[in-house]
Amino acid sequence: MSTVREFTAPGMAARTAAILFVFVIVFTGLLSGAYQWTKPAIEASAAEEKMKLIDEVLPRSEYDNALLRDTVALPPVPELGLADPSTAYIARRAGQPVAAVFEAVATDGYAGKIRLIVAVRADGRVAGVRVTQHKETPGLGDYVEVKKDKNKARPWIAQFAGLSLADVPAREWKVRKDGGRIDYYAGATVTPRAVTKAVLKAAQWFEASRNTLFAQGDAR
Amino acid sequence: MITRDEFDTIARNGIWKQNTSIAQILGLCPLLAVTTNAVNGIMLSLATILVMALSNVAVASLRNFIPHEIRIPVFILIVAALVTVVDLLFNANLHELYLVLGIFIPLIVTNCIVLARVEAFAAKNPPLQSTLDGVFMGVGMLWTLALLGALRELLGNGTILGGIDMVFPALQPIHVLPESYPGFLLGLLPPGAFILLGCLIAWKNWMDARAAERARLKPPAPVASAGCH
């Protein structure tokens, strides 16, 4: 009966724990390996898409500088929902700043963060907003993304273009359900509400930091 | 490796008898969220087929090394790691496809059907059978979700294949009902999904009951017929 010792409870527990430990090590290794290996490619394609998006929020005809090289490094900005440093792009025409393009995050979406790109003109009017990343429910809340919006002629997110804090007081930057002037589709209110709030905050942040923003850019 | 009978049983179980959505009634959360049109349902199912086949083959290959007491944490570890790796690889290497299918991959993690098949089938069967089980469970889910999605969008929007333009930009959704169809919102909301799913389950039960009745009334066939359940 030499095998009896192998089947003592502590022995079994230790063996089981060791096996679990090995599984955890192996699969964590697999995960971190895959992450490291795919990171450059994922970041590159994300950056490429951002460039395409800038064209959607700010027409190229409005500026004549090399927008992508005219940048301001932003520290983490809590007002924009940004926990990490980000970059703002300054659009200029004949050396004069005409708009700023920057990121914002709606932190209270239905399913996690909704990342936005916002362009605001020098006079405080929103030039355009696009959703760059979200995890909202497919077919329900995802119409904030133009590509998923059924109304191709006038997508939901286009409502923000032209809004300015000078014309529309902050209390009206809300979905209609909350007493504001932003339309939304029945069935999903949380998502448009979160996006609307984030755009308002972005406009307010721009108002407050316009001068420092435009002073910093590299006017090449 | 695998006998004809085994293959038939696995296929029939996945597609009809133990259909994930209308027999096992598992994975309702993604089902309700996604089947607002047929294309979404098909896309989610395709992603699920991939993940179920991979997780089943991984667990089936490792099943002899996994102690019974800690099988659930190990299964979760394997499934979660695989889904994440698939998500990362898709994003990095097949970016175009990822843009279409990508949002559905993380949704799959919430689908208990993956863990259910790992536990119920892959933990007890060889890799080949387990892979087939994953694929056919996914195929069963595919037709159910496609049907449910098609019914919901027909009711809700009056279209067929809404959202096809997201997968193939050249194609447009087909309006079956006149453009002036006002749309019946219930079809697109979760309660409508529940009602239609209930109808599908009732239809399956009716089909099964009818088949059983026929099998009972018919004199025993000379050749053992595998078709009647």
Question: Could you explain how this protein is built, in words?
Answer:
The complex is a heterodimer of chains A (220) and B (229). In chain A, 35% of the residues lie in helices and 20% in strands. Chain A contains two helices and five strands. In chain A, β4 (112-121) and β5 form a beta hairpin. The model of chain A has no long low-confidence stretch (mean pLDDT 86). Chain B has 229 residues and is mostly helical. Chain B has helices at 4-17, 28-34, 38-62, 71-93, 95-101, 104-109, 112-122, 127-156, 164-167, 190-217; strands at residues 159-160, 174-175. In chain B, α1 (4-17) runs parallel beside α8 and α3 (38-62) packs across α4. Classes of the chains: A alpha+beta (220), B mainly alpha (229). At the A-B interface, α1 of A face α4 and α6 of B.
Task: Spell out the blueprint of helices and strands.
The complex is a heterodimer of chains A (220) and B (229).
Chain A: H1 9-57, E1 71-74, E2 86-93, E3 96-109, E4 112-121, E5 126-133, H2 190-216
Antiparallel strand pairs in A: 1-2, 2-3, 3-4, 4-5
Chain B: H1 4-17, H2 28-34, H3 38-62, H4 71-93, H5 95-101, H6 104-109, H7 112-122, H8 127-156, E1 159-160, H9 164-167, E2 174-175, H10 190-217
Antiparallel strand pairs in B: 1-2
Helix pairs in contact in B: 1-8, 3-4, 3-7, 3-8, 4-5, 4-7, 7-8, 8-10
